[in-house]
UniProtKB/TrEMBL annotation:
Pfam families: F-box-like. Transmembrane segments: none annotated. It comes from Moniliophthora roreri (strain MCA 2997). It comes from the Eukaryota. This is F-box domain-containing protein. SMART domains: FBOX.
C-alpha cells in the first residue's frame, strides 16, 4: 500500500470516528438492533488504541466485517464515495453499503417509466437484488395531474415482486400517487420492516356503494375489507404523513389508503400519522375491535385554527384512543392539543399504565391518571399565534398527584423561575439522571447557580445532564431555509412546489443545513467554568450542563479515568430549543431518516 493511500485511509476514518464511536456507544433511537459481536469488536479495537500507533497500521488490522459495519453507519453517500476511492479493499467493502438504498426519482414521467422497467427485469445473478435493503420512490414534479402521474407508477409492483421481494426491508414513497395493485405487492414483502408514505396515497376508483357523505360509514369497513391479504409480521414502523395540511387530497383516496394499509400493517410496533377527521374515528374503531401491539405512537396534530373549526381534529378524541393501547410504551404528540384546557388537572382521566416515554404538550399530560412506568418526559409547545407557558401552579398540581417512581429524564418549561421548584423536583424524583428546565421570565444570579449544587443537586447522585437557561419566545426565532441557486425557499408555496422543493433539496443533501437563529442573549463566558466545576463537585457523574441558550458544555472521561475540562460545543438546530416545535424544521428533518 502506498503512503498516500494509507494517509487517505487514516484521514477518512478519523474524520468520522467520533460520530461512529458515539453511535456505537449510544443505543439507536430508530428501533434498529446493533449486532453484539460487531459492537464488541468495535469497542475492543478502537477504544484500546494507543495514540502513538501509526493510524495506517492500526486500521489495516481491522477485519472486513467491522469495516462493513462502520460503512453502514455512514448516512451521506458522499462519505461512502470517499471510501470507494481510497483503495481496492475499501471499494469492495463499501460498494454494497452504497447500494443499500435504491432511489427511483426523476423529473420526467417517461424516464421514470423506463427506470421502473429496467429494475423489474434485473438478471438473477446481479448483486443489487441481494444488496439493496431500501427503496425510495418519488417524483421531482410533486403533485401533477392524475392522468400524467398515474401511468409511470403502474410498474412499481412488478419491481417489488420480481427483483426485491426477499431483500427489501425499507420502502418509502415521496409525493407519489400509487395504483391499487400496490397493496397485494406490499403484503408479499415478508421482510419489510419500515413503510413510509410522505404526501403519497393510493388511488381508488369511486364506486357508488362506497360513496357516502357520512364519514363514519366510510371508515367503518377496515376489518372486513381485504381480509384475504396477508399481514406483514416483520413490520416495525409505518408512517403516513403529508407536508401540507391545507393541500387538497381526495378524501376517498385517503380513506382507501388508510383502510388498506392499516390491515396489512396491523402487526406494526410504531405508527406515525397525521391526526385528522378520518384518522381519529378510524384508529378508535381499530383499537376497540382488536388488540394492536403498538409500542410507539407519533401523532402530528393539525394547526390550531383547524382544531378550533373542527372538533374531531382537536385533542379530545385522543382521550378516547389512549386507554385502549395496552402495549404503548412511547407517545409523541407533535403540535398543540386544543380543547383540553377545561380538564380538571387534580383528577386524571386517562390511564396509560405501560407508557415509558412521553413527548408532547403539557395539557395532554395533565389528563393522565396513572403512569407508574414513565421514565422520560419532555413537554413542548408550538409557534402558534397564542403561545402560552405552563404556570408553576399547574406543574406543582400535576406532579404532586402523579406517582413516578421510575422517572429518569424530565424536560419542561415554566413561565417564571422559582427557586423552590428545584427543591420540589429533587424531593419528588430522586432518581433523575437528566433534568432540563427552561424559564420564560426571571433571572438566575451567579450566586444562585453556585448554591444549586450544594443545596439541591447533591441530592441527585445519578444526575448526568442538567440544563437551566432562559427560554426565548417562539417569535424570536428565524428559520434559515435551504437555498437553491442562491435563492431562499419560499414559505407560501403551493402543494406541487412544496413537495418538489423538499424532495429536490433532499436529493442534493441540503436538508441538514437548516439553522435556527435564536435571538442573541448575553452568555456567561467568564463564570461558566466556575459554576460547572462547582456543580461537578457535588454531582460526580455530571457530563453535560447548559446555562444559556447559545451554548452547551460537556466533559468526558479519559483513558486513565480522569475527567477532561469543560468544553463548549455548538448547538444543533433541533437541540437549540428542544421545547419548541417548529413545523418547517420538522418537515425537513423527516427526510433524514431515509438516508
Amino acid at each position: 500500500m502506498s503512503p498516500n493511500t494509507s494517509q487517505r485511509k487514516s484521514q477518512i476514518v478519523l474524520s468520522f470516528r467520533p460520530s461512529l464511536i458515539q453511535s456505537f456507544a449510544d443505543p439507536p433511537n430508530d428501533g434498529t438492533e446493533v449486532d453484539e459481536m460487531t459492537e464488541m469488536m468495535f469497542r475492543q479495537t478502537l477504544w484500546s488504541v494507543e495514540l502513538s500507533v501509526d493510524p495506517s497500521q492500526m486500521y489495516e488490522r481491522l477485519p472486513n466485517e467491522l469495516w462493513m459495519a462502520i460503512f453502514d453507519r455512514l448516512s451521506l453517500p458522499r462519505d461512502l464515495l470517499h471510501c470507494l476511492l481510497t483503495c481496492k479493499r475499501f471499494y469492495s467493502i463499501a460498494w454494497p453499503c452504497l447500494h443499500r438504498t435504491v432511489f427511483i426519482t426523476t423529473s420526467a414521467a417517461g424516464a421514470l417509466r423506463r427506470t421502473l422497467d429496467s429494475l423489474s427485469n434485473l438478471p438473477e445473478n446481479t448483486p443489487l437484488r441481494h444488496v439493496a435493503k431500501g427503496m425510495v420512490v418519488g417524483h421531482l414534479q410533486g403533485y401533477l395531474k392524475l392522468k400524467r402521474l398515474m401511468d409511470p407508477y403502474y410498474g412499481i409492483e412488478s419491481i417489488i415482486q420480481k427483483s426485491f421481494v426477499e431483500s427489501l426491508t425499507n420502502l418509502t414513497f415521496v409525493g407519489a400517487t400509487l395504483p391499487s395493485t400496490i397493496v397485494p405487492a406490499l403484503a408479499k414483502l415478508a421482510n419489510l420492516q419500515r413503510l413510509y408514505l410522505y404526501s403519497s396515497y393510493i388511488h381508488y376508483k369511486v364506486d357508488q356503494d362506497t360513496d357516502s357523505e357520512d364519514e363514519s360509514e366510510g371508515v367503518g369497513y377496515i376489518e372486513e375489507a381485504k381480509s384475504h391479504l396477508p399481514v406483514l409480521r416483520q413490520l416495525k414502523e409505518f408512517r403516513l404523513w403529508r407536508h401540507d395540511w391545507y393541500g387538497i387530497t381526495s378524501e376517498t383516496d385517503y380513506k382507501y389508503t388508510l383502510k388498506e394499509l392499516l390491515h396489512v400493517c396491523k402487526r406494526m410496533h410504531a405508527l406515525c400519522i397525521d391526526w385528522n377527521t378520518v384518522v381519529a374515528p378510524t384508529l378508535n374503531r381499530a383499537v376497540q375491535r382488536s388488540t394492536l401491539p403498538w409500542r410507539y405512537l407519533c401523532l402530528r396534530m393539525p394547526p390550531l385554527d383547524m382544531q378550533i373549526i373542527n372538533f374531531r381534529m382537536s385533542g379530545e378524541p385522543l382521550l378516547q384512543l389512549l386507554p385502549w393501547l395496552d402495549h404503548l410504551e412511547e407517545l409523541r404528540i407533535v403540535g398543540n392539543c386544543f380543547g383540553l384546557e377545561h380538564m380538571d388537572q387534580e383528577l386524571g382521566v386517562v390511564r396509560v399504565s405501560q407508557l415509558r416515554t412521553y413527548s408532547g404538550p403539557f395539557e395532554l399530560f395533565a389528563t393522565f391518571a396513572e403512569v407508574p412506568a414513565l421514565e422520560r418526559i419532555n413537554f413542548t409547545f408550538t409557534k402558534d399565534p397564542r403561545p402560552h407557558h405552563n404556570t408553576l401552579g399547574k406543574i406543582y398540581t400535576v406532579f404532586s398527584r402523579l406517582l413516578l417512581p421510575r422517572l429518569e429524564a424530565l424536560s419542561f418549561y415554566v413561565d417564571k423561575w422559582d427557586g423552590e421548584l428545584l427543591s420540589f423536583l429533587v424531593s419528588k424524583f430522586p432518581k433523575l439522571k437528566e433534568l432540563r428546565i427552561a424559564y420564560a421570565d426571571g433571572v438566575v444570579t451567579e450566586d444562585e447557580l453556585s448554591l444549586l449544587a450544594s443545596v439541591y443537586l447533591v441530592s441527585l447522585p445519578q444526575l448526568r445532564v442538567f440544563h437551566l437557561y432562559h427560554l426565548a419566545q417562539p417569535t424570536d426565532m428565524k428559520l434559515s431555509a435551504p437555498t437553491q441557486g442562491g435563492r431562499r425557499r419560499r414559505h407560501n408555496m403551493s402543494q406541487q412546489e412544496n413537495t418538489r422543493h423538499l424532495l429536490h433539496a433532499y436529493l442534493q443533501g441540503k436538508l441538514s443545513i437548516a439553522v435556527v437563529e435564536p435571538k442573541r442573549r448575553k452568555s456567561l463566558p467568564d463564570t461558566s467554568d466556575v459554576v460547572l466545576n462547582l456543580w461537578s463537585q457535588y454531582t460526580p457523574l455530571l457530563t453535560e450542563g447548559r446555562l444559556t441558550r447559545t451554548g452547551v458544555w460537556t466533559r468526558g472521561r479519559q483513558v486513565d479515568g480522569e475527567w477532561t475540562s469543560w468544553r463548549m460545543r455548538p448547538v444543533s438546530p433541533l437541540e437549540d430549543d428542544s421545547f419548541v416545535y417548529n413545523d418547517d424544521l420538522e418537515r425537513w428533518m423527516e427526510f433524514e431518516s431515509l438516508r
